[in-house]
Every structure is written in C-alpha cells, then in structure tokens.
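Researcher: Go.
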Amino acid sequence: MIKIDPSDKTPIFEQICKSVCKNIAGGLLKEGDKLPSARELAKLLQLNPNTVAKAYSILERDGIVYSVQGKGCFVAKHEGRANEKLTESFRSAVREALDAGASAEELIDIVSEISREKNK
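Model: Structure:
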C-alpha cells in the first residue's frame, strides 16, 4: 500500500507522506483507517523506524492523520487536505522543472501523456 523508491532522490520520509496522500486521494485509505505502526512499516519497507515516525509526524502536523496514544495512527477527516498536499508537491516539481529550463509546453505534453497512460 505504501510505496517508496530507494533510487528516487526524494527523501524517504517525503515519499511515505506522498504515498499516504495518494492512497487517501485515490480512496484506498478512508477516514478512520488505521495505518501500520511505524515499526511495522519500517520492517516491511526495511527502513529505520525513525524515518517512518518522521513521516507520520509530518502527516499529523498537516492534519492528514491523527494518533491515539497506545492505538496508532489513523486517517483524519481529510476534507481535501491530501489532495492539497499532492498539488503542492506537483507545483513544486513544476517550478523546479521550469527553473531547470523545461518549457511549459514540454510539461503540458508530459502531463497529457501520463493522463493518457492512466486512462488506458
């Protein structure tokens, strides 16, 4: 459910945050669903538990999840916050690509291509 790409230059904790947000936005995770504990997820993904804990902390700070002492982390009533977080990440990536010299037309073509692939 929660995926990371070790070859990606994005920090692992950010990848975890994005993956959780994608799962919420895509309906795989719903309000009240329990996330794996930091230790469980760290073991599953072969990560340091502190990395997962950092991601969960950021998600909680942003109102995406909430924690209950002794029970774990749960998906909060998101009201579009997961989508906002993903959109914010997308905007940042677009700015970075434009700063690196990509044209708006190239980026639009990429988005169109990805959309076509997704709709197949």
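Model: The chain has a mean pLDDT of 87.
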